[in-house]
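Reply to dn_fold:

You asked what the input looked like. This is it:
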Amino acid sequence: MDFLDEHLLPGSFGHFFLLLSLISSIGATVFYAIGLRKGGVSSELSSGTGSAAYWKRLARLFFVTEAVSVFAAFGILAYIISNHYFEYKYAWQHSSLSLEPEYLLACLWESQEGSFLLWSAWHCVLGLIFIRKQKQWEAPVMMVIGFAQVLLATMLLGVDILGLKLGSNPFLLLRNSGVLDNAPMLHEANGALRVDYLSLIKDGNDLNPLLQNYWMVIHPPVLFLGFASTIIPFAFVIGGLITRQYSEWTKAALPWALFSAAVFGLGIMMGAAWAYESLSFGGYWAWDPVENASLVPWLILVAGIHTLVIYRSTGNALRTTSLFLILAFLFVLYSTYLTRSGELQDTSVHAFTGEGITLGHQRFFLFVFVLPALALFAIRYKKIPFIAKEEEASSREFWMFVGSLVLFLSATLIIAMTSIPVFNKIQALFTGKDKLLNPLAMGEDSEYAYNRVQIFVAIVIGLLTGFGMYLRYKSTGRPFLKKLLLPSLAGLVIAALVLAFGDVNYTKQGIGYQAAIWVAVVAAIYSAVANASYIFTGLKARLKMAGGAISHVGFALILVGILISSSKKEILSYYRGGIPAFFGEKSEEKPGENVTLVKGVRTDMGKYWVTYEKDSAHAQKPLWYYFLKFESKDGKEEFYLKPNAFVNYKGNQGLMANPDAKHYLTADIFTYITSLADPTKVKDTASFKAVSTAVGDSFFYSKGYVVLEKIETERTIPGLELSATDSASIATLKVQSQMGTSYTMKSVLVNKGGVLFSQPDTITSESLILQIGKVDGNKAEFGMKESDAVLEYVTIKSLKFPFINILWAGTIIMILGMVISVIHRRGAKKEGARERKVVKKQPEDRERAPRAAVED
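and this is what came back:
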């Protein structure tokens, strides 16, 4: 059947390119494998002669075709979304007509299919660069990348084979997805879909409101580049194990590992910044399972980089390096499984629910890499070279190895705690869901469960990165002590000043945890000072060689920023009387840490007066922006914050809020909405109730009582013309609320030409409206109405994060240091290549040059 207004050509091309990407990735994998078998990691393979070179050229052709196919599919999906072709499920489910152009781009990777396509696209980019830059190890590395592309391509096929669903196709038509089955208005009487069904679909389902943020545009691509890049160090190790060239890959792999750590770390910290600015986590890190799942492989990768440097220096730790680089990629796959399988949907605020790619398919993707990789490592383990002699305990390499083990153990503990839901489900397979034997749980304070262990990791890493760099001078005796003494004393003095005058206190978990925080602050500050000093004393300010020290300075500053901002985090919005928070509504927030602001009413919030001045609505969707005026009580400061909130948007999801922050050099004032009345549902359905009273008497309303203080007759009313025969009666009333607050109201009854006009008065904070109806001497009749429709309010939570900028500055410095290291290592590699050419041209130097060529 032909349906009106459908655009089927883009989807047809999309299907074609997805299928072509699968076929070409299989071809690339197979032909690289053949080339590797025939030529190994040899000069023949890189020189372009012989049968191995033939298979390599053929594999390249297939991989380039694979890359073109993925880029084309990606571009077609972007075209479908940007043109609002809602006949495609992906466009309908994740976009809308009102969505801003930049968020239409974000729709590409909001769901599983789009994010897997993004991952595949990054593999293609990295593969093309690798082919051009890294000729010698091209076959083994690209064989592994090609195999990963095969599996990613199956994730996007969306076909049924013998009843088994294989992947989820982003080009699936809405009418074939089952979504329209429960929409009778789109069907004929006989159940057939109407040919003009598209004319009845006025808009898409929209991008999740919490994802409508600029971070959604830039964070996922960077993070997925980090995910994708871990496959290259992994592939180097696998290639070395397959070809039995166990150590030759190490020099070529180091720049790629550094690049991966830099991009991956940047992606993680972008996520932390997003959580801080937009997702109302109450901070930049909540130990959310999805956050942890990205942190773990990065920690292992950093540990692997350090052991790789150890091996390049002393020949030790090659086995450990191989294991770490394998596990870094495997934990990327496991983390992907955790966040996309639905395993964490009950414990994470932003895990996928498992919709789309089937659970079995994701498990296959995980195990088809995990089992062969670990098996190959185990089989080749004894063949991997090692030095029987242990490193001296006073050597720099020994303490680098200790630090790497600490990072690895930290990552292992984090992923074990994060995987508790998975462990419980595995146990349920053997005992039954209702018969779990002591199911594991994190406890009520999961954040503290992580922090009480990781605080000691911070202490150890801070100390090791501080003095470890100086151990290269240990044999110089007094000069070594002199070099080490000055930064140590400076670090201790600065740390002491910070602790003495910085009020770094966190007594919530007891004095023991408080002491650990103090020690960690000292260790982190010492590390930052010692590494900064080493750049000038040990490296003579040669920045191109200082990548490691610069990274350590950045990492130390990250620790300092985390420790100080978290321990000194201050809640500004403590309840100090007035209107209670939430008005009985359900909320996970603590009422005592929130303040309710009534529109136009200046409210006490500790150090500040805060006024909810106005609000504005989005032109096309139920999104409201609230303008909050902050005034310091000393009169020295005034600023506005503009947090926004969604109410029951995209289904019954409750309140969703994006905060706003006032940024200072030394602190941030961070504020977000925790409760508000739904502007679309507040309707005035209350009616006036008649009340008669006399001057001096009182009557009650639901939240207090009202006293009629006096009735006056006036001949002049501002803004109203009254003749000599006209008059106005003004009733002054005092309202006393149950909360102890009193208000004065004035209700006016105008007699103009014998016609009575009543002007009511309103107290919005009490939802109270009074209007005078009749006056008889010192008596009066009033109409009283209580209506929530007159109350415009927001409840806010406001926090102060001191010295948060240290954290962000540390991130930038750490990434900069890694980039400098990448550039330096690439330069060392080129220098080695030039020296190898010298060896070929001058045979008499053959004994000297190879050794020089491998020096870092």
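The longest strand covers residues 704-714.
Hope that clears it up.
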